[in-house]
Specification:
The protein is of the alpha+beta class. It is 43% helix and 14% strand. The strands form 7 sheets. It has a 4-stranded antiparallel beta sheet with strand order 9-14-15-11. A 4-stranded antiparallel beta sheet has the order 16-17-19-18, with no helix packed on it. A 3-stranded mixed beta sheet has the order 1-2-3, with no helix packed on it. Strand 18 and strand 19 (536-538) form a beta hairpin. It starts with a strand and ends in a 5-residue tail after the last helix.
Amino acid sequence: MNNLILEMPMSQILNSMEDKLNGACNKQQLQRYAEAFSPWLGKYDKKYKKRYDGSLVEAKELDAMTSNTASKYVIAEGIALIISSEENMKSYIDSLKPQMRKLWREILLYGFVSHDKAKEILGVKSKIFSKSYSFYYYNDVTTWNKHEYGWWTTSQMRSKEKLSYGYRERVDFITVSNIVRSIFFPYLFPELKDIANGHETLPEGRWSTIDLETESLSAFNLFSGLFKQGEMPLKKKGITAADMKRVNKKLALTEFFPNDHNEYREFLRAFNYIGVLGINEHLKSKYKAKKILSYADTLLDLFKNFEKFNSYLPSLLYPHIKGMRQNQTQWGHHQRLCILMMEWLKEHSDCWVSISDIYLKIIELGSDGTTNINTAMVYNPHDEQNTTEMVNLYTLDIITGDMYTREFGITGLKSFAFILASLGMAEIAIRQDSVPTASSAKPATVPATSAADSLSVLYATLNAERISPFDSLEYLRLTPLGRYALGVDKTYEPPVIEQEAYFELDPERLIIRSLQDPNPYEQLLRDTAMPISRGRFQTSALSFLTNCHSREDVDGKINIFKQFIANELPPLWEQFFQSLLQHCHPLKEDKTTYKHYTLQPDNRDLIQLITTDPVLREIIIRAEGYRILVKIEDLRKFETQLKKHGYLL
């Protein structure tokens, strides 16, 4: 006799799972889930559950849950018996065919699988469901052709192919509900338990490592000077590509792919460095942050206020994708994706970190309910129905719902890694040798728990497709600057950088001489000095105080002068700046309010009274031209005294 013996979960765990099922599912959904176990349970003559004392008791709830008369609570009781136990679930997962486990992994990893691809994976030609429609109360009421498919749901989205008249037809995609995802994910991806806490060294392979920390520091002064000269106006989506290229000619930044003439890779470093820092400077101006910060503190402040970048992140992370709309980006999952990546880097700040590890952890967090699964997809695929189509201009492919986690999730992580590297916050490792293709890796044609289905094979699958300018990046680690900017280290000691001299100050006169032609900082002098000949400028109190209205303005201009013109000042210049600060607001404004009157020159009696009456003489201030001033608070006394002498004011 072929019997099935299941583990009896603790009553507390069992009751909790029953409550979870009853709260998350309606009866029709629970019936489908119960029937999904039928092919497995039908192989056994008797089903028992094993108590803690080793005794067996018949598992009657397993037969009851598939009865036509079973209540919702009876169905939940039977399902909970299986899914509340790790041993029971492993037994069920092991009963599935390899093709079925491969499809499950595809659904859990990428969120959606098209109906045609599902048939291809399963090796069937006929549809795997008979019909799919919606009721008012229930979405996706689907009639599946086999009981074991009952865990899934269907969703209609746009296809990649266009019909002859230009429209994309709606086709069926297979997905799962959040509760089903949370149940199955740990068992279909057991290898995730082996994810390392960072890597001390890079794995075998040909890697090109890039660390731009020192260059990022040295370029910041020149960048700031160009920004203050108005070289980088901010548009709706950030700094334009034309402005970035113009500024980059002066910065001469090292590029990641110097010999690549693809428009998305050729100026990738400049796009990130100038774009992020330019937006940050505009945001600081918007919030009236006048304090001049070092480069390290600028980054520290930037990532403390990272939420302000929310509306600019899509264009920074996905410059190669056309068709994104505001209603897709409003939920902020792209920002959450970056935050989760930064949290992972902070936890493993001294190691090489795999982008694949971060992505898989985000998928896992979305599966256990710790975060929203849409974070891994970044955008909800259903929002595409209300927008224009999205196209990957790097591959010229239309993006469909089953591609979101790859096009936005994995790509977003790699793109953000390039941003961190561009700012000097991370050292990156770019793979130089060929990456195994998904077909050669064959990750899901073997049991999910076998030794062959290792993390390395899963990594190869995730990195096999070339869908963005960022694909070759697979590992990164924080630099000392990155650890400081993300708050891991409380102090930062920048490397010694030999700064190039751009100006020379005359120690005897307030004259500045330019040492380079062209000089990228020369425009900054226009606000503080007057040109007197080619490459020579003269400063005076009048020229320096141009556009200054407060002591803070003067102090800020002096700091800018020290930052971009000359840090070490001769005594004459030190005295000049000190005198400017000391002379700020030398006069105190008189806040007293006076009432002004004009006397008639021919009214000799009144003039005589004002000059002789002791009370009036005390109240009145005489001015030129027969004018007198009386304080507002003395007006009543003034009027009364005049009345005593027969005058009505």
